[in-house]
Amino acid sequence: MSEVSEVPGVPAVSGVPEPALLVQEPPRPPPSLTGGGAAGLALGLLRTARPRQWIKNVLVVTAPVAAGQLVSRQTAGQLAVVFVLFTAAASAVYLVNDARDAEADRAHPVKCHRPVAAGEVPVPVAYAAGALLAVLTTAGAVVFCNDMTAALLSAYIAMQLAYCVSLKHILVVDLVVVTTGFLMRAMIGGVALDIPLSRWFLITAGFGALFMVAAKRYSESVQMEGGAATRALLSEYTTGYLRFVWQLAAGVAVLAYCLWAMESGGPPDSGLLPWRQLSMVPFILFILRYAVFADRGTAGAPEDVILRDRALTVIGAGWIVVYVLAIADL
């Protein structure tokens, strides 16, 4: 028997049976073809819509509360509709984003588990579901709210889709787009209910959102030092720049809130206590406490930071109580 190996790179050994030819295993079918049925597809679409992120849309109540219009049955119903519409708009963006990034997500250690990347939801289905949700969102806003609400939702969807395609790769613009998305959430409740938006509200909400967004990017930048970047653009920022942004944003948000509290306070006999001025205390405490996590590089998703730290939760609840007393003029 010949001693020439049939396997390249493996020398033949006299007296030892020659190894069999290696047969390459045929490629497995894509995960999207492995089954799951309609129920699995529906569950995959729901997971792609990011239910965990829906809590952010509670911000739609911000403008009515800031204007002193406490929730009545009528306003509560309208705000519930706005919440559903904004949730649908955000979900449409998530679906399109995951469909577009499916190939890149499959190479990511964490994002590979997303339903579209994992093949639980076919890419064309994700695109179709996202487009359908976007159309239904705009139509629902026209029917159940007003034209301005529909325009704001359409602008949000267009801006976020542009972010998915190109804006997330542009330095600084990515911070502005994400911040604007939070600001739109805070504005839309007032737009839907035809409530004038205070300049102090817009400044505080806008820079407060920028503070949290920049703090999150700063934390990601700190954690990636010595490792791979989790975002393509993150390596373009320096930690010093991101620290400057969140510190600047925090300062402007505090200043705007204090100016609102001092300017809007009524005469001493308008209530039991000067609640507007007193509300500055928990607000500033909240910003300072949150800045501790930003400085440590552990300020990830805002909802996670707030719920994880008991002191932040208590301070936030205290601010809500004092703020409600202030706008109720008790």
Describe this structure in words.
The chain folds into two domains: 69-196, Orthogonal Bundle (Tetracycline Repressor, domain 2); 198-330. Helix content is 65%, strand content 0%. The N and C termini lie far apart (101 Å). By secondary structure, the protein is mostly helical. Helix 7 packs antiparallel against helix 8 (173-192) and helix 9 packs antiparallel against helix 10 (239-264).
Overall number of strands: 0
Which H/E pattern describes the elements? HHHHHHHHHHHHHH
Uncertain spans, ≥5 residues at pLDDT below 50? 1-35, 265-269
Q: What structural category characterises the helix and strand content?
A: mainly alpha
Sheet-strand content, in percent, reads: under 5%
Mean pLDDT value: 83
Biggest sheet features: none
Given the structure, what is the number of helices?
14
How would you summarize what this structure contains?
The protein has 330 residues and is mainly α.
Secondary structure elements and pairings:
Elements: H1 37-48, H2 62-66, H3 73-100, H4 102-106, H5 115-118, H6 123-144, H7 147-165, H8 173-192, H9 199-224, H10 239-264, H11 275-278, H12 280-296, H13 302-308, H14 310-328
Helix pairs in contact: 3-6, 3-7, 3-8, 6-7, 7-8, 8-9, 9-10, 9-12, 10-12, 12-14, 13-14
Question: Which structural traits does this protein have?
Answer:
330 residues, mainly alpha, Tetracycline Repressor, domain 2, 14 helices, 0% strand, disordered N terminus
